[in-house]
Amino acid sequence: MSVQPLQSQPAPSVNALSAPLVESLVADAAALRLGVRRLADGATLVDAGIRVPGGLEAGRRIAEICLGGLGRVSLLSDGAGDWPLGVHVHTAQPVLACLASQYAGWSLAHGEGRGAFHALGSGPGRALARKEPLFAELGYADAAERTCLVLETDREPPPELVARIARDCGVAPGGLTLILTPTRSLAGTVQVVARVLEVALHKAHELGFPLPAVVDGAGAAPLPPPAPDFLTAMGRTNDAILFGGRVQLYVDGDEEAAGELAERLPSSASRDYGRPFAEVFRDYDHDFFRIDPLLFSPAQVLVSVLASGRTHRGGALAPELLAASFGGGA
Q1: Which residue of 55, 155, 175, 264 has the fewest CB atoms within a 10 Å radius of its CB?
Q2: Which domains, from first to last, does the chain contain?
Q3: What is the average pLDDT across 217-224?
């Protein structure tokens, strides 16, 4: 679907806004239990849970970097049921912050066979490389000499891939910072659950809702307990959003379209809804692309129309499914 550019006035730079956050993260690495290493070509790797512990605060700050410096992420005692600790996300630029920066839409790979490296990249570097058709639809491009990309991975990327990322972003290797966040780590868990608003924006786009009509937005989801392996962690972080995520979008425009969005946006509208994500993934023979893409959305959605003041509601929290995924109550 083709959409109008985000806005007529110059858009803010996600790289310029996130650069101080990246610098602060690196400067505070010891306090945040992060590892920082400079490669031979000058690129910086930040380990947020591979060989070091990392933690919740590191994940919160990494999530704000993913949002391109345009959003705020908080840890609140406002989760769901037996899981009171939650992640809250707000941004005054939901389309730009979530889709032009936070969305993990850049597929990165190097090598072949069992030793091949694969990861999804998110963060402000995407707006420099513009490898995805989405950027043409958004009408957004950024320019910067320094950038950052967040990779969901439990291993360091090969130097050849790091060099290619820098070239694709149009920066010298010394201007590139890669933050590595294993999904099973505490930091990785926070930064994935902090995508609760982003998945709502992405699904709204897939449903054909006009993105320029989305004026503001906020979301929250419970924080899952730690998981010992990638598959369990992937299941729990997805389920936090599918069964415990709540999002409110503030929109301009058509009342009927807003009502339809509230009805179709929740995860319960998907054919694959109703079981923990790890079970769905297993039953599709671990083939991610066989899962209904419309499953990935919050459990509960509110769409508020600015002109009328009316709010349309859809979906509901599912604490029993959260308990099945997270391992029961306290």
Answers
A1: 155
A2: 14-326 (3.30.1030.10)
A3: 96
